[in-house]
Amino acid sequence: MKLSIINKFTAVMLLLIIFAGCNDILEDVEPPTSVSGELVLTTEDGVNALRSRLYSIMRANSGFTTQYMVAPSAFTDETRARTGATRYVNLNVAVGTSGTAHLSAAGSVYGLINVANHMISGVEDGVVPAEVLNRYKGEAYVLRAFAMHTLVRAWGYEPGNYGQGPESNWDKGIIIRTEPTLDVADADNRPRSSVEEAYAQIIQDLEQARTLLAGYNDNNTYVTEAFAVGLLARVHLYAGNWAEAASLAQEAINISGRTLETSESGVAGMFFETQGGHPEALFKIVVDPNTEPIAGSNVNEGLAAFTSSQWVSQVPTQKVLDLYNEGDYRREHWYQPCFNSQQGTPVGGCEDVNEPGVSTNKWNGDKGNLADDIPYMRVAELYLIWAEAAAKAANSPSAGAEPLQALKDARNAGSIPSEALANIDAFEDEILNERIRELIVEGHRFWDLKRLGRDIRHPDGSIKMFADSYRILAPIGASARAVNPLLEENPVYN
C-alpha cells in the first residue's frame, strides 16, 4: 500500500533531516544503504531538494573538499607544512597509520551514496517530468560512482595490482550499496565485494549515466555528460584499460565543448572565480561564501585556509617548483608569496619549504569568506589521461605525445624532453611530472603513485612508504568492524 500524502511528506522531511546530520552519526560506522520498504517522493519540491542535497553533501564534507583535494599532495612530495603551521603535518610525516586513515572518508562516501540511491530508485514516476527525472537520475548515478571510486581506491588495490601488498591476491574492495535506507537498523551486514565487482558497478553506473545525461553539457555547476564520460576515462585509467581510457578521454573533451586555456592571462586567472571561474571544469561545486561553508567552516577547513589565505599551512615543495621550465605560465601565476589575506600580513616559514617562500594560490578564497568553487575534473586532466593511456595502449611514447604536447603548448611549457620519448617508463615519468605541474592540490598525487605501484617519497627523494607497504591501503577501523562483523580489515592492521 502506498503512503498517504501526509505520511509521504513526513518521510521526505525526515529524509532531508537525516541526510543533513548523517555525517556525525556515520563517520565511524559502515553506513546504511538498504531499506526495508520503498521510499516514495511525491512532491516536485521534495525531488528538487533531494537533488540539491546530492551537491551540498559534497561541499559540506572534508572527504570531498579539503581532504579530497589537498591531502593527496600533503601525503606525498608535493606540499609540506611551513614552519609554525600544523594542518596536515600528520600526513607530511605519516606517523603510524594516521596518514592513510585520513585519505579515507567512509562516512561521507556512504552518505552521498545513500542520497544517490534515493534519487535513483526512490522517486515515483510522474512526480516530475520524465526528462527531468532522467537527468536527476543521471547525476545521481555519476555521483554514486564517484563516491564508490573515491573509497575503493583508498580501501583496495587497483585491478591487476593485487600482489602489490603484504598478502598476495588481496582483492577486497568495498561494500556495495545500491538500495536506499532511512534507518540504521535497516542495513544488513554484508562482506566487502571484490575490487573487480566494485569497478564493474562503477562502470555500469557511469555507462547508465552517460545515456541519461546525453546533451547536458551547458551548465558545469551540475554533473554533465562530459563529466560522466571523463570520470569513466579516469576509472578505466585506474583499471589499466588503456585503450578505453584514451578513447573516452578524447570523447569527453569533444562533447564538453571546453578547451584548454592557452593565453597567459587565461591560465593566470582560471582558478579565480572573479576572473576565469574555472573555464576548463567539466563539473564544479559552486559555493556561496555567505551561506555555504566548506566542510563546516571556510576558515578552518576551506581549501584556501589550508593553502594560501588563512593558515597557509601546506605550501609547494622546491621539488615541485623545480619541475617547471622558465616561462611556464603555471609557475608564473599559480604561486604567490605567502601572505595571510585575512590579517593583511606576510606569513613566515614558507622559505623553509621552498626557496622563494611561496604558496599555491589555486585556492585563494577570492569569492570572499575564504570560499572557493571546487572543480572535480578539468579538460587538462583529460589530456593527461589521453596521453598516458594512448602511449600504454600502443606500447609507444609517440602515441601519447600529441595530447601531452598540446597541454604543454597551452601552458607555454616547452617541448616534451627527448629522453621522455625513449621508452614507456621514461614517458610515464614525464606524465607523472606533468601531472604535478598541472594538478597540484587537485587531489591526484598519492593516487597516481599508488595506482602505478610507485613508492611514496619525501621531497628529497628518500623513501617515505614503500609501494608494497600495508599502509598504502587505508585501515577500515575497529569501530566499523564492530558494527559489521563481516567487514574484513585490510592486511596487517588487525
Describe this structure in words.
The protein has 494 residues and is mostly helical. Among the domains are: 164 residues, no CATH class; 111 residues, no CATH class. The chain is 46% helix and 6% strand. The chain has 22 helices and ten strands. The strands form five sheets. It has a two-stranded antiparallel sheet. β9 and β10 form a beta hairpin. α3 packs antiparallel against α8 and α12 runs antiparallel to α18. It is globular. The N terminus is likely disordered.
Low-pLDDT residue intervals, each spanning 5 or more residues = 1-40
Determine the mean pLDDT.
89
Residue fraction in strands: 5-15%
The rough form would be described as globular
Q: What is the count of β-strands?
A: 10
Query: What does the radius of gyration come to?
Result: 22 Å
Structure characteristics:
494 residues; mainly alpha; two-stranded antiparallel ribbon; 10 strands; globular; disordered N terminus
Overview in brief:
By secondary structure, the chain is mainly alpha-helical.
Architecture blueprint of SSEs:
Layout: H1 5-20, H2 22-26, H3 44-59, H4 66-69, H5 71-74, E1 79-81, H6 89-93, H7 98-101, H8 106-121, H9 130-155, H10 195-212, H11 225-239, H12 242-256, H13 264-269, E2 281-285, H14 298-301, H15 303-307, E3 314-316, H16 318-322, H17 329-333, E4 335-337, E5 339-340, E6 345-346, E7 358-360, E8 374-378, H18 379-394, H19 398-410, H20 424-439, H21 445-451, E9 456-457, E10 463-465, H22 478-483
